[in-house]
Amino acid sequence: MSQPDQQSASSQSVDNHRRQFIGGSAALAALSVAPGVMVYGLAHGKPDDQPVSNKVRWGLLIDNTKCADGCTDCVTACFTANGIQLPSVPPKETDPQWIRKVELKDMRTGRTQSLPVMCQHCEEAPCVDVCPTGASFKRADGIVLVDKHICIGCRYCVMACPYKARSFIHEALTDQKPDVPRGKGTVESCTLCVQRVDRDEQPACVEACSQAGHGAIIFGDLNDANSEIAKRVAERATVQLRADLALNPSVRYEGF
Q1: CA nearest to 56, candidates 254, 229, 239, 193
Q2: What is the pLDDT of residues 43-87, one digit of tens each?
Q3: All structural domains of the chain
Q4: Which DSSP category does 134 fall into?
Q5: Nearest to 144 by CA among 130, 169, 127
Q6: pTM here?
Q7: Which whole-number Å values give the CA distances from 146 to 61, 150, 162, 242, in the listed order?
Q8: From CA 100, how far away is CA 104, in angstroms rounded?
Q9: How does pLDDT run across 30-47, given as a tens digit for each residue?
């Protein structure tokens, strides 16, 4: 066999081993999801007669002036709606990072602010870019998700996320919700409550904040000039976390 043929055969062998590794790892990840829980609803979005469209871009606007120190209504609602155990007190590194309250203090003035931080559902999502299996993906409507059937738990996306918005599931899970698949050995993060959005409902954090009378979080279509969120973004000064990275997150903040 000539040298070029030997190199070609060697490359083909490496590729075959790589495919076997990824395929086998994906199968193990799929087995770690609770029996009967499937992620096809998340991966494919709405039913075929209601396709997800890129004409829509779902996003959040968080008004920091209305977000009270010590209030965790949004965190409790998120974790309850998605079948997640509430964070430890004090927090642990292994706690789920779907949403967390962050306390900010201006050292010059002493002014403090409290704001929720979750997956920012970036247009240029670094978690999607680094994922070796395609498990991290962005829907046409801008929602960033993880397909638990093909996530191999490598955690590249955890390292790539500048918002510390992703976490790894270390232990076996029980009492999961059928429409929110989770699984040991996989990565997870805020899904914007995609299961609720696809039923034309508000994300749990938004609903809880509104019901509590705070009104600090608005959800809507950033592409719809007539939506409340688009009007607020157009009329008021808002910021994106780490705008310098040019990721164009779908979560905006105002009141800084």
Answers
A1: 229
A2: 445 665 677 889 999 999 999 999 988 899 999 999 999 999 887
A3: 3-254 (3.30.70.20)
A4: S
A5: 127
A6: 0.80
A7: 23, 9, 17, 22
A8: 13
A9: 333 443 334 434 444 566
